[in-house]
Write a structure and sequence with these properties.
By secondary structure, the protein is an alpha/beta fold. It is built from six helices and 15 strands.
Length: 264
Amino acid sequence: MKSVESEYKIADPLVVQSKIFEPYQDRIRAGISLRLLGNMSFEREPEATVTDRRLEFFRRMGISANDVVGMRLSHGTRIRRVTARDRGMGATNAQSGFLATDALITNDPVVWLMSTNADCAPVFLFDVKKSAVGIAHVGWRGVLAGFIAKLVARFVMEFGTNPAHLVVWVGPTIGPCCFEVGENVADAFRSAYAGAGAVMISKGKPHVNLWRAIESDLQREGIPDQSVELPMECTSCNSRYGSYRRDKDKAVSMGAIIGLLPGG
């Protein structure tokens, strides 16, 4: 495997940042809130409680809620391009976020794209030539539905992206150690990712390696291995991350944000 494996640099003790984006820190900003910052999803708690936590996350990221765009996740593959006109939508309440959407893209500066995750992969994309960014919430259903290919194709269509110029950070995600699945799901991954090491057997049960499946998809789309940063830690194993598999209805959904800086 040639992809860069993450050595998470935490400038703020409660915010995870990417090693692979460090050379572009004057052009973009991206980060993920750790579990101690609390649940960032509106699904399971009072809106006011979640809003307060989000505002603290935004403060730590050095951004304004008025510039953040959020989405109401559906574990699908819908992608929305957003502009400066959309700023503030879904930042501090669920109702105004983009409905049934799992990815946001933009080339407008100071528009902060937000997702949440608790085992599914937060996937951050940056076109270093066209100055465009995106964020996606990618779970196993999205992987099998070709979400990565659809994301890259949308960048090509909207921004004229050459996939070779994309830099991608795959944030903390459930690992193969903990992602036990049924035989039907395992068979689907075996078929779609033959030879990629996307399925392993542990204690007699099939486990899916989402990291390898996503890496395989990125390679297929022509993104250089050296431009991809993969997780090293499993969200379910490591208590500093939120995990639905580990905590069920008490799971903390982490916030994930990316945006272009002025002049980026």
